[in-house]
Amino acid sequence: MKDYIKDPELKHQLLLDSLNLDEKMGEFEESLPGMQDLIPDGKIKKLVIRKSEKEVVSTDAKISYHYIAYAQGKREPVDSSIARGQVCRLNFSDGNTYEGLFIALQSMGVGEISKFWIHYEFAYGVLGVPPRIPPRGNILCVVEMLSVIGKQEIQNVAHMSREELAHLPFERIMESVENLKDEGNKFFGKKNLNSAISKYRKGIYILTNYSALTLVNHGIHSRLLGTLYANIAQAYLENKEARKACVAARNGIQLEGHPLKHKLFIRFAKAKAMLQEFEDAIRLAQKAIAALQPDMKAEGKDYDNFLEEVKRCKEAEAEDLRKLYSKMMSGKNNVEGEGV
Known about the structure:
Number of helices: 12
Shape: elongated
Strand content: 5-15%
Number of strands: 7
Largest sheet: 7 strands, antiparallel
Structural class: alpha+beta
Radius of gyration: 28 Å
Helix content: 40-55%
Mean pLDDT: 82
């Protein structure tokens, strides 16, 4: 999903500014000039703030968006996805929102920001939802369309929610993730690291959000998840993203009984060495060596060489610090003028 502004406070303020509410905060009339009728009777109006470069979303799509809304007569927002820290998601086939917003969303394209005025008949009706939304409360809102998943992609496991994944058989989950892993490995082999990382991340998303596990299939699930963490840690290393490699390796190490634990430890160690955190790198490299099987002689030699190299780096760092400290202490402690 592409989110155009990362800082939540900045995004929240941008969308609030887009509403252009007056000081009374409850009078919407000043926001109406310049808005175009979205439906013939004029009870839903729209003003585009930032245009989309893509087509309007189809009515069979699954979308994600940010949303801030005011009800007439209220000084504070009645809803804000940014304040909640949660992107709104909607499958148009479900229609799980009020009619006015449903129509508004269907008029947008990816990347678009638009302001909408929605008459109470297309919002919360004559009664409203007191005390949050007053009776006959018109709605003024601003929406940013973040992403759209088309009809064909909706059936793709990588785009499903936790609830949707729970209804799938374990075999389909594993098949989908194995395919993502294989695709990621192909990208990795071609040095297309960002695409490889994207595939691995999708596989990790599916496995970490799939909860319908049994004692029988838990081990299979854990082994594949550990492999993905090991692969993405290596991709992050080669992409010079050491901190992300640390997180991936740590997550993989926490899985029980994974056969690639030595690789997770050594990749964690390499990420720490890249960050010049040599004590942690030494400790993790030693754990990697301890996790090796007796027949892994080639890996053992490589790990030993890496450990010795990290130790030399740590000694060199310590020597540099000793020289710096000695130089600092040998200088004269002069003061200027009347300073003390």
